[in-house]
Design a protein that fits this description.
Number of strands: 14
Strand content: 15-25%
Number of domains: 2
Order of helices and strands: HEEEEHEHHEEHHHEEHHEHEHEEHEHH
Distance between the termini: 83 Å
Shape: globular
Radius of gyration: 25 Å
């Protein structure tokens, strides 16, 4: 037998061996990888397509308490959203809100560890588990045809060990590095809420103490799913880290210029609610509400609204009239805005200008602004042809 024949034989044997290894590994991978039909498997999470752009895992973690009691009143869900960059702030919501919480978490390939971290917080922190329902979302890749079933975290550390290392683990998380789809995440938080009444808020706003219970009765009276009403919650910002949680403390700090109306130095037109003196006077007598006029298309107040009320326009670019588009649509849909007294929201720190990151994102998103604006204005005129004059034009 020639040396050439031997070499060819060895080469063919090596190729067959490699091919066999590939086939075995492929079969093993197919057998071990969960498919859509495996969604009931405890080790996997089904995700669903949202707006042809996102994959959503609703109810990835579910709160253990419904907050429905003998009073028969519908509880108010705090609907918040964030990335893992705001993990500590989001975790604190469980101690700040005395009702159900729906939290939408945005992730990407760099921030997958945040899912495992949140699962451990939910498992090991009783108050968080009792109140918070968690959903996560990520963008479909350009050529991805459908949303996948995602593997649940495999390792489950001891709770004592996890809690001892909680801060270190949180600090090691990496947030997604892409434009944050703020309106989509607002909608995910509302769609996943366990009650029909939603307080749509930013995760860095701190609610006044006992707000969920204090405002529940009046919210049930004003917002019943049939009458077109929303409650408006006043916002403030603190000079420093001290956050007022009750009316007396708020008024004292406001008078001493330690607390101010929200964004009073930066885009106040978007947040201004007239007659704050009257609000303080009424608030001193307890929880109450009264109708106030819609201000302008720059208005982006925070509201409590019903599940049936309009949702945010997902296609709106982030940081460019994203929340204003919802408030304007509420006006066009003939919703009445009722200002609620005695409860409020506070942001730590006074904003005086946009951060460099925010400016860069805004410049980037303006490329989509004109197209979104034309689509939105046309949709508003088609849906609500008779209310343009009473609400005015929508301006970018």
């Amino acid at each position: 037998m020639s040396r050439l024949t031997i070499r060819y034989g060895i080469l063919i044997a090596c190729l067959l061996s490699c091919l066999l290894t590939i086939i075995v590994n492929r079969i093993s991978a197919i057998n071990s990888k969960p498919t859509i039909s495996d969604c009931r498997n405890a080790s996997s999470i089904r995700t669903e397509t949202y707006e042809a752009e996102f994959c959503i895992a609703f109810n990835f973690l579910e709160a253990t308490e419904s907050f429905r009691g003998p009073d028969g009143l519908e509880p108010i869900t705090l609907a918040v959203h964030s990335t893992s960059d705001a993990m500590r702030t989001a975790e604190k919501k469980a101690s700040e809100w005395d009702g159900p919480i729906s939290w939408a978490l945005f992730i990407d390939g760099h921030s997958l560890e945040s899912v495992e971290y949140v699962a451990n917080v939910h498992r090991c922190v009783p108050e968080f588990r009792r109140k918070v329902t968690v959903h996560f979302a990520f963008r479909l890749s350009p050529f991805q045809a459908q949303c996948p079933t995602v593997e649940r975290p495999g390792t489950v550390p001891d709770c004592q060990e996890f809690l001892q290392n909680r801060g270190k683990l949180r600090n090691s998380l990496i947030g997604p590095f892409q434009v944050y789809p703020i309106n989509a995440m607002r909608n995910v938080a509302r769609l996943g809420a366990k009650s029909d009444l939603h307080f749509l808020a930013d995760v860095d706003m701190v609610p006044s103490g006992g707000m969920a219970e204090k405002v529940k009765r009046i919210a049930n009276e004003v917002i019943d799913g049939n009458a077109r009403n929303v409650l408006v919650v006043r916002r403030f910002e603190s000079q420093g880290s001290e956050i007022p949680r009750d009316l007396q403390q708020l008024k004292s700090m406001f008078e001493r210029k330690k607390v101010f109306e929200f964004h009073h130095k930066f885009f106040f037109v978007g947040h201004r609610i007239p007659d704050i003196g009257h609000w303080f006077n009424v608030s001193s007598h307890g929880v109450a509400s009264w109708p106030i006029p819609y201000q302008s298309s720059a208005w982006e107040v925070q509201v409590i609204l019903h599940r049936r009320a309009p949702y945010n326009a997902v296609y709106f670019p982030s940081r460019i009239r994203d929340m204003q588009s919802l408030i304007y649509e509420l006006c066009r849909a003939e919703y009445t805005f009722h200002l609620v007294a005695n409860v409020f929201n506070v942001h730590e720190g006074v904003k005086t200008n946009d951060s460099m990151y925010s400016q860069v994102v805004t410049r980037h998103q303006r490329a989509y602004g004109t197209r979104a604006y034309k689509r939105y204005v046309q949709e508003m005129d088609d849906r609500y042809p008779s209310t343009r004059d009473q609400c005015g034009s929508f301006n970018m």
